[in-house]
Design brief:
Rossmann fold; P-loop_NTPase; IstB_ATP-bd; 8 helices; 57% helix; mainly alpha; single chain; 3-stranded mixed sheet
């Protein structure tokens, strides 16, 4: 590793470190300006970081599986308000600090919609936690008994997805 690559490693610029030589060759062949060359490298580095951040949010959300609305069966249940559900995916409720409650019988897609909504929020740079309501409460009670409630509350993302399978009610904070 040369000195330049060591600086890139220190600055945590893995894309540029791995690709600067190839990009320099392409830039020379295409007669890019220095600014254009740097702009392309930085654009790719930023894209890599954004992708990693999304993957990190998805991992930290602890979804049991990843689901999207592309996978949702809109033919069941018959009475689902598709426009209303699709409107939730604009995520305005997060901006407005509103709650969303999905209620219905077993097997109509509440979990699927909740996971897909959380996944969409991750894609839009929102922190998500998918957990049962009872687990969330138990963690907070345990933290309170340990005198660490403030620290535990700081770990809760701005967008909290708590899902209680018995009542079928996901709540978003």
């Amino acid at each position: 590793m040369n000195e330049f690559e060591m600086h890139l490693a220190y600055l945590k610029l893995p894309y540029i470190r791995e690709n600067y030589e190839t990009a320099a060759t392409a830039a020379a062949q295409k007669q890019w300006t220095h600014v254009h060359f740097l702009s392309e490298l930085i654009k790719q580095e930023a894209g890599l970081r954004k992708d990693k951040a999304v993957l990190r949010r998805i991992r930290l959300a602890r979804f049991p599986v990843v689901k999207t609305m592309d996978q949702f069966n809109w033919s069941w249940p018959k009475k689902i308000n598709r426009v209303q559900i699709e409107n939730l995916f604009r995520l305005k409720f997060i901006e407005e600090k509103s709650n969303v409650i999905l209620i219905g019988p077993v097997g109509v897609g509440k979990s699927h919609i909740s996971i897909a909504l959380g996944y969409q929020a991750c894609l839009k740079n929102q922190n998500v936690l998918f957990t049962s309501a009872i687990d969330a409460v138990n963690n907070l009670v345990a933290a309170q008994h340990a005198g660490q409630l403030k620290q535990e509350l700081k770990k809760i993302p701005q967008t909290l997805f708590a899902f209680d399978r018995r009542t079928g009610v996901p709540a978003y904070r």
